[in-house]
Amino acid sequence: MTAWTDHRTFLRRALRRPALIGAPAPTGPTLAAAIAAVLPATGAPTVVELGAGTGALAPAISARLAPGARYLAVELDAELVAHLRHRMPWLHVLQGDAADLPALLANAGVGPVDAIVSSLPWTLVPPQQQREMLAGIAATLAPSGVFTTITTLTALPTRVRELRRSLEATFGEVVATEPVWRNVPPSRLFVCRGPRAC
Ligand SMILES: C[S@@+](CC[C@H](N)C(=O)[O-])C[C@H]1O[C@@H](n2cnc3c(N)ncnc32)[C@H](O)[C@@H]1O
User: Fold this and answer.
1) In the record, what terms sit under GO molecular function (predicted)?
2) Local confidence band at 197 (pLDDT 50, 70, 90 cut-offs)
């Protein structure tokens, strides 16, 4: 399998389930490097990726982490889960809904998480559902943990403002990075710390 296979699989699933996939192409290496740079580079952190797709973030994330780190990926779409398991047998993939994160991690025997990265299509999710999902994310993070999510510059500004409000209701600190223009579509990160007890 090749990067071309990844793109073809991604596009097929995006055409079949546009609201779930929420992007025309896998994340590019510049944005993947930016999201990986937020993760701890030393120690033995537990890192969870939400919405792993065809695994576009996985090489940058695994390269960032030290050998003792634990890295798990959550993906809802069954075809993408099969693709990930075939393409990246070293990656611990949990098939399920990010909305059920606490239960998914408890079933996998995973305790508090040090970092969660997400490329979920948040701006396509209604605010009430966003907040419920974010509450689950905050509940699984260690107090010193960090949650980072990609948001595209092509998303409707009103939806991005709603997302930001949901993030600010869930975390004590929410920082938006500069845009990463070398990505399709151009995107930025929200880096969130200080999970509140929801
Ligand atoms: C924009 S794609 C990003 C894929 C990949 N991480 C990348 O950067 O190229 C969003 C991914 O999130 C997955 N997804 C969407 N909603 C989800 C949910 N509630 N739980 C788990 N995965 C979800 C989709 O199936 C898709 O693979």
Assistant:
1) methyltransferase activity
2) confident
Which CATH class name applies to 3-195? alpha beta
Task: Pick the atom of ligand 1 nearest to 26's CA.
Answer: 9
**Given the CA of residue 51, which atom of ligand 1 is nearest to it?**
12
Domain boundaries, the chain: 3-195
Residue nearest to atom 27 of ligand 1 (CA): 53
Contact 115, 39 (CB under 8 A): yes
Angle (deg, nearest 10), helices 127-140 and 157-170: 40
Within 17-126, where are the H helices? 18-21, 29-36, 58-64, 78-87, 101-107
Q: pLDDT tens digit string along 21-43?
A: 999 899 999 999 999 999 999 99
- Return the SS3 of 5: helix
Q: Which of 22, 116, 121, 7 is nearest to 56 (CA)?
A: 7
Return the residue whose CA atom lies nearest to atom 15 of ligand 1: 20
